[in-house]
């Protein structure tokens, strides 16, 4: 299998994407924060017969180039609809989202009438992530302040010394903020996520209206996103199922491929 690399021009922006597979179902694959479309390539041998897979470099990631700084949910919807229009031979659409891509998938499935969601260690279902509750205007103010992040990082170091902030959080923020490219990616993604808030009541309303099937796969040793949000959703929505693999947050591996194959063999 050789993935074909291509570019889509939409909303004055340039989106790099990979295509592989020859199936009659279109699978749109959205990666996690700081990843690229290439993260889905190890799944190609499982997916390529049933699916035509289009894996996209998300806004502010990889070789996708975004015009401006206010990319919205409506813009993301337009991009996915453009990709669907480019594949008229496909008779149905499904979504696969990993981590941050899972959050986006939960917000977009009804916009493209996706009949199934494959959510891999998905963000967007845990209720305690306070940093994603900030309104967009406040995020814009913070993003401007962090263009010169030294004062903020000094505060983080002080909080680390007081054992209020863990070392890995301070290190993560330094990595994201001290490099211009990383900072633009982090702030752009945070701004975009304001359009994809975790609203369980709204999610359930949309799920019950469109009735997609959902398979969620979590890493048993994931320290970033736990399976509790997915398990809670599965109790509220009877077309959702949760499985775990012996991995951390990076759930990709033989066990995931086996789960995907078993699920596809049901149909």
TL;DR?
With 267 residues, the protein is an alpha/beta fold. It has helices at residues 44-47, 73-85, 100-108, 136-145, 150-161, 167-177, 180-193, 200-210, 228-236, 254-264, and strands spanning 4-10, 13-20, 25-30, 51-56, 92-98, 116-120, 213-219, 240-245. It folds into 2 domains: 4-128 and 198-264, 3-Layer(aba) Sandwich (Rossmann fold), CATH 3.40.50.1820; 135-191.
Describe the structure.
This protein is α/β, with parallel strands linked by helices and 267 residues long. The protein has helices spanning 44-47, 73-85, 100-108, 136-145, 150-161, 167-177, 180-193, 200-210, 228-236, 254-264, and strands spanning 4-10, 13-20, 25-30, 51-56, 92-98, 116-120, 213-219, 240-245. It folds into 2 domains: 4-128 and 198-264, Alpha/Beta hydrolase fold, catalytic domain (Rossmann fold), CATH 3.40.50.1820; 135-191. Strands 1-2-4-3-5-6-7-8 form an 8-stranded mixed beta sheet, sandwiched between helices. Strand 3, helix 1 and strand 4 form a beta-alpha-beta unit. Helix 5 packs antiparallel against helix 6. The longest helix has 14 residues, at 180-193. The chain is globular and about 55 Å long. It starts with a strand and ends with a helix.
